[in-house]
Amino acid sequence: MNSSIYTAIDSFIAREKLPHTYRITVEQWFLPLAESILKQVSTSRRTLVVGISGSQGSGKSTLAALLVVLLREMLGLRALNLSIDDFYHTHAYRQQLARTVHPLLATRGVPGTHDVALAMQTLKALTQPGAVLVPRFNKGVDDRMPVQEWTQVQAPLDVIVLEGWCLSIPPQPDAQLSLPVNVLETQEDCDGRWRQFVNQQIRQNYTEFYALVDFLVMLKAPGFDKVYQWRQNQEAKLAATMAGGAGTASKLMDVEQLQRFIQHYERLTRHGLEVLPALADVVFELTDQQTIAGKLKG
To answer: How far is CA 206 from the centre of its chain?
Structure first.
C-alpha cells in the first residue's frame, strides 16, 4: 500500500472523531475487504453495488464512508456511499400510512416506511451517464430534506456502497408472526396487522430492491440486547450534533421514547441475526464494545 492510503485513513479517523485504535481495525479487516471489492469491480462491466447490513449502532455508516475513501485512494474509483435511511418516506406520508394502515407506521424504520421506488430509481440512475440528485433525510427533524438540498452526483459510478439496518433481510415465515416479541407488539399490535404489513412489504417490494446488491457485508451484533445501548449512544451523538439547531430539540428522544422506538426494530433485527449470515458474502462478528472479534465468513 502506498503512503497516501494511510494518510487518507488517518484523515478519515480524525474527521470522524474515531479512536486511534480504529486504524488497526482498518488494516486488519477493512483494507482486505476493500481489496476483495476491487477484485469484484475488475470482473464487472457495470456499477457494483456493495451492501452493508447491520443493526443500529453497528458501525455500518462509518464503514460505508471508509470504503468510499479506500476505493478512491486505491484506484481512483468513482464511489458513493448511500443509506437506506435517506429513502424514508416523508413525515407527512408516514402520517398518512398511520391513519390508513396502522398507527405504528408513523415511526420511521421498518419496511413500508421507505420509498422503495425512489431508492431503485436512484440506484439505477447512478449507473447511467448524467447528473443524479440523491435524496437526503434529516433525522433531527424526522423528514426528508427539500429537493434543492439533495446531493448532486455525476454518474455513472464504479461502486455504490449502500448501508441499512434491514438491508437484505428476507421476510419471516408467516407462522413466526403470530407471537409478539416485545411490549410494543403486545400492546400496540395485538392483532398482528402491523407486523404482517411489514412482512408483506418485504416480500412484495423490498426483495427486488435488495436484489440490486451485488456483494453483501454483514456487521453481526452479539445480540439484540446490545442494540439499545448502541442506539442510545447514537442519540447522544445526534443531540450533540444538532445542539442549537432551530426546531430540532423536540425531535430528539428521551430514554423512554428511545426504548419504545427500538422495539419497532426488534423483530426484524433478531430475524436478521439468525438468517443473514448465510446470505452475506462477508460476515464480521462484533464484540459488546462494537469492535470486530473476527470474520465468520468471507
So the answer is: 14
Burial of 225 (0-12, 13-18, 19+ CB in 10 A): exposed
Cis peptide upstream of residue 156 (ω within 30 degrees of 0): yes
Give the Cα separation of 237 and 139 in Å (integer).
Answer: 12
Q: Is the pTM of this model over 0.70?
A: yes
Cα 51 from chain centroid (whole Å): 9
Architecture of domain 3-297: 3-Layer(aba) Sandwich (3.40)
**Pairing outcome for strands 130-134 and 282-286:** unpaired
* Relative orientation angle of helices 60-75 and 3-15, to the nearest 10 degrees: 150
CA angle, corner 165, sides to 25 and 22, nearest 5?
15
pLDDT at 254: 78
Domain segments of the chain: what residues? 3-297
pLDDT score for 172: 98
Spans in the chain with pLDDT lower than 70: 1, 237-252
Give 149-196 as a DSSP string.
GSEEEEEPPSEEEEEETTTTPPPPPGGGGSS--SHHHHHH-TTSHHHH
How far apart CA 92 and CA 133 sit, in angstroms, is 21
What grid cell was written down for 263?
Answer: 422495539
